[in-house]
Specification:
Length: 466
Amino acid sequence: MITHEQADFICEQEIESILAKCRRPEPSQVRELLVKAREMHGLSMEEVARLSFVESPELLAEIFSTAKQIKEEIYGTRLVLFAPLYISNRCANECTYCAFRATNADLKRRTLTQEEIAEETRILIRQGHKRVLMVSGEALPPEGFQYILDSIATVYETKIGPGEIRRVNVNLAPQTTERFRQLKAANIGTFQLFQETYHRPTYAAVHLKGTKRDYDWRTTAFDRAMTAGIDDVGIGVLFGLYDWRFEIIAMMQHIQHLEQKFGVGPHTISFPRMEPAVGSEIASKPPHAVSDADFLKMIAIMRLAVPYTGMIMSTREGAEVRRATLEVGISQISAGSRTDPGGYKDGEGDPNGSQFQLGDHRSVEEVVSDVVSLGYLPSFCTACYRLGRTGQDFMDMAKPGEIKYHCHPNALSTFQEYLSDYASPQAKTAGEKLISIELQHMDGQQTATALPMLNQVRRGERDVFV
Ligand code: SAM
Ligand code: SF4
């Protein structure tokens, strides 16, 4: 057993007492909170708890419209797109909700070779992707951790003409500080890890075997990642395992801990809701299922609570819920996803090799066309990470609203790349119309940056960013 730090920054007693205290918010209190949220300095744990108990339709509408306003202020119409890349579904752990769990005999096991990873990458590049989230179960092949490092290198090295993946984020098991240093040296973007649940008794009940049983090892993973120099970390909870209100207050404790210790909170928050999975009973009947209404409320509240943090929605959700979440705070979405290793090559995705059931089966182009029709600007930008604007540097630039002079032009240039290289004629026409509308809405400084960049891309230059 490895000796390591305890996650005493997660304090169940404090969470319970905050929730008990904030159960009946007065409308006047809620409205005061919303005025404060509009200043975009975030909210405290008590304030988050109070908002989580709001039920009145009028007040909820005010929460949603405030979240929308804040999102538009910070992100404008931009929406970042990515795809997951599953490299192995072999796992030594026994998480009761996951199809990859060790004893699940119904699952077809597969660990991709480097050539198979290159093939999956080529398919993602041809779909127009520039960033992937590499995902793996927790049983390594004989070459050990080197397999992960090699896989990251394979993705970066795979090119098709000007097409390439420019940012590899990872969702992997918690690592030692030394291995985090190796991941940093391999050039990962974000290290993403979901806590699943912050509630210790529930955590113990759903993790039956393997290193994942160790709550503290998982909860302190970001401390080790940040100590190793990984500035961008992505947090999340698997919603459905325990009370969502408890989980979001615990998430706030985790965020506060990272801010106090490292001067910067997480780069992103993900909102996975539990989906049915082959060979898992609990996944079809989550003990604390979160309704669509609560799901939207929770996302809106987190947008108010940590206004500058990227918020991610995966294809676990169906198209309709995904659209609704964009309105209230989500700033990044996956598209065209498969959750079985080799699933992009195999076409439809094999339900018996997949981690969970997808809610959104649309192709990248269908998702792009849909979000364009709703007025969002798809962005394939990876500039910040490549210019070293991560962690504190990113937050320093994001907070005064400066980011719009970088992100918006970069979103336009990378969307133009997508339209020129990968889109169908109809998608191209709709996309270029959106670009001209966006240009009309920009201020002089933004246009002076964006227009020359767009012209460079239209003339055939690639990877143009500021
Ligand atoms: N094995 C690593 C781990 O557990 O952290 C990383 C990969 S794991 C495949 C990624 C995430 O998938 C897990 O953290 C969990 O939150 C999520 N997941 C597992 N089963 C799920 C299900 N039935 N529905 C939705 N998400 C699920
Ligand atoms: Fe393995 Fe991760 Fe699935 Fe747990 S959630 S069974 S650790 S892949």
